[in-house]
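Hey,

Quick one before I head out. I ran the complex with flavin-adenine dinucleotide overnight. Inputs first:
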Amino acid sequence: MSKRFVIIGGGPAGNTAATYAARMGADVTLIERDILGGAAHLWDCIPSKAMIATGGALSQINAASGMGLTDVSASLDFDALRGRIATIQEKLRASVSGMLENQGVTLLQGTGRLKGPHEVVVETTDGLTEIDADVILLSTGSRPRIPDWAPVDGNRVLTTRDAYPPPELPEHLIVVGSGVTGVEFVHMFSSFGCQVTLIVSRQQVLPQKDPEVAAALEDDFIRRGVRLYKGARAVGLDVGDGGEGGGGGITVRCDDGRVAVGSHALLAIGSLPNSEGLGLDAAGVEADHGYVVVNHNCQSSVPHIYAAGDLSGKLPLSSVASVQGRKIAEHAMGLHVGPHRHLDYEKAASAIFTVPEIADVGLAEADAFSSGRKIRVTKVPFSANAKALIENDARGFVKIISDPATGVVLGGSIVGRNAAELISVIALAVTAGLRVTDIVESLLVHPALAEALADAAE
Ligand SMILES: Cc1cc2nc3c(=O)[nH]c(=O)nc-3n(C[C@H](O)[C@H](O)[C@H](O)COP(=O)(O)OP(=O)(O)OC[C@H]3O[C@@H](n4cnc5c(N)ncnc54)[C@H](O)[C@@H]3O)c2cc1C
């Protein structure tokens, strides 16, 4: 009899695991309470990048005079953008559900929870169903954290769930939180022409990132007229009547006494795991602050119950969730019998879709210094790159970090056009243990932005 594999949550972790496990012969049931594709398709990655793409096109068209064009201009059609996002979401949902159906996965629309180590209960519109399982994957994702001082109404006080797109285009948006999500929002709404104020609790945006990278982004924000409240922690939010023209009305109070006034506020201050009511205790699954504790195979304290994606408390990235899903399917189906590569979260590439775009992977310069590790850092600006000049955007740089003794590539960061694509080369080098000379000696295309990688590797 084939293995009964039950998955709760159909985001990137759940649907990837379902596809692979079914392909390997498991009898897979996938339970999803909302939309297949998960938060990633509905609220996070996809709608955010669709809005950023529209903002990017707008900025590029309006900057076309720098490329020898005249009389070119564009303006935002907010309803058309709303329709575009809905179309992309529907295409992706249909593609995920088509793929799962083709693999013979049973899809259940409902809310799932553990009843015991081998029993899952699903609440559907028809009532409760109980399913027995040999293997269970918990991949229920996460949701935005809302502090108790913020009266979120989905209208003028928003979380990331309300903002793609928001009910109306804000005249003046106050973004609270300057991590990856916060800065993407700043970029997106300022590219639509909104006034934006960013509350930054530390002294730099993107506190986890290389200070040089963060500085490049801050410079760009300041050039666009974004107001930065640095070293200020938001502690209160009041909703007024909107004021004349709807431009005022939201007041965000900070712990240092400063007050930001705008028309809308958006909270981007982290997330919480979706583990309440999931029955972790009933099955004896250990959790830490709501995140399921997992080992390097993504197994929980109950070995046949796995957790992946945001719920596993590892890197909250869609890309990581999908790879975890694939690894879990392979492990549960007994494929990991010989030596194989475990997931190394420290080698995960990530990107921030601002302009300039930012991407990094592997060892960061600051971490190497703080641990006393000897490194070689080489950096070249895009201003020396022919393709960047041709494309009229030579902002940013490529930085490569390598081992001075062996030349092995340990990490890198890229700020500039197409950084999210270009980082793949450094990510491959980091994962495969390649040396800088391997990049230098690759016969690359000319003119190409990637030539900056070879120059930085010299
Ligand atoms: C604004 C924003 C932008 C982002 N952009 C990117 C990006 O560009 N690139 C990137 O790699 N990552 C990005 N992320 C992170 C990414 O969205 C998450 O890491 C990813 O969605 C996690 O996938 P998951 O499978 O764990 O969960 P999710 O995608 O959250 O899916 C979980 C699913 O489980 C369902 N569910 C929950 N509880 C139950 C239950 N009891 N029963 C049944 N179903 C249930 C939910 O409805 C949901 O569909 C972004 C995040 C945010 C907030």
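The CA atoms of residues 22 and 403 lie 42 Å apart.

Talk tomorrow,
K.
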